[in-house]
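Fill in residues.
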């Protein structure tokens, strides 16, 4: 399907560099390339070649990984390698209702919205208004902002009228919010807590078990690329190592301590 005006796309060169633009059929100013006749994009489709100022590119519609990589960042985002693990382990799908703690820059929120659309929704609790506004700016680029709501407040005490299939917590002390948000997660629903340090992982695992959650487990993702060249393949010297610990569990109908 040809690109439409107002659509966000990117140019990719042979080195992997991306240049982002919003399609317009009039004169179009592209960062690092100058002014280009936008009508040239009128009949182009996903993956089409285009030459601009003597350099060859392919123009692509972004997927969620590219959108997450290109976010206007304030707080550090949850990386695609961890976001994918959260989506699968929390069984997040179209139609799911998600309660998220911590908008950050909207990286994980973007992945969640892509998974729950078009029938589901994500409601995010965010402590700082500035983070929520940055996340909203980023999420609007995806066109999925109609499935997102946020509430400003402290997850340890704020009340929201949401019954969630999954509760995703990206905060430094998630065990302190567990009592408050416990009732927002349906029986059988899944929880994920993302924390950077082992002592935090230990505390939230203990809290989940004390609260009666089942199938509680923790894991860490390590990702290493490969250098692939004719006649030689080896692991890359650099790798995407520790980013955070992921702790999962499922709510049972046993309401411990209540």
């Amino acid at each position: 399907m040809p690109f439409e005006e107002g659509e966000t796309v990117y140019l990719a060169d042979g080195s992997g560099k991306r240049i982002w633009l919003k399609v317009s059929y009039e004169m179009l100013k592209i960062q690092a390339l100058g002014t280009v006749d936008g009508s040239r994009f009128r009949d182009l489709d996903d993956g089409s070649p285009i030459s601009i100022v003597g350099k060859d590119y392919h123009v692509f519609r972004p997927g969620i990984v590219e959108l997450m990589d290109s976010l206007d960042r304030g707080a550090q985002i949850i990386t695609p390698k961890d976001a994918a693990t959260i989506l699968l382990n929390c069984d997040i799908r179209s139609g799911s209702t998600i309660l998220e703690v911590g908008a950050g820059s909207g990286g994980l929120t973007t992945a969640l919205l892509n998974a729950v659309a078009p029938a589901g929704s994500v409601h995010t609790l965010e402590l700082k208004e500035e983070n929520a506004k940055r996340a909203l700016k980023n999420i609007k680029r995806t066109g999925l902002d109609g499935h997102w709501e946020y509430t400003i407040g402290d997850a340890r005490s704020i009340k929201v009228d949401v019954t969630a299939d999954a509760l995703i917590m990206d905060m430094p002390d998630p065990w302190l919010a567990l009592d408050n948000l416990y009732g927002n997660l349906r029986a059988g629903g899944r929880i994920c807590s993302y924390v950077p340090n082992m002592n935090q992982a230990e505390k939230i695992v203990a809290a989940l078990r004390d609260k009666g959650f089942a199938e509680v487990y923790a894991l860490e993702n390590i990702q290493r690329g490969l250098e692939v060249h004719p006649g030689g393949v080896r692991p890359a010297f650099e790798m995407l190592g520790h980013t955070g610990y992921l702790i999962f569990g499922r709510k049972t109908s046993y309401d411990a301590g209540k």
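The radius of gyration is 21 Å.
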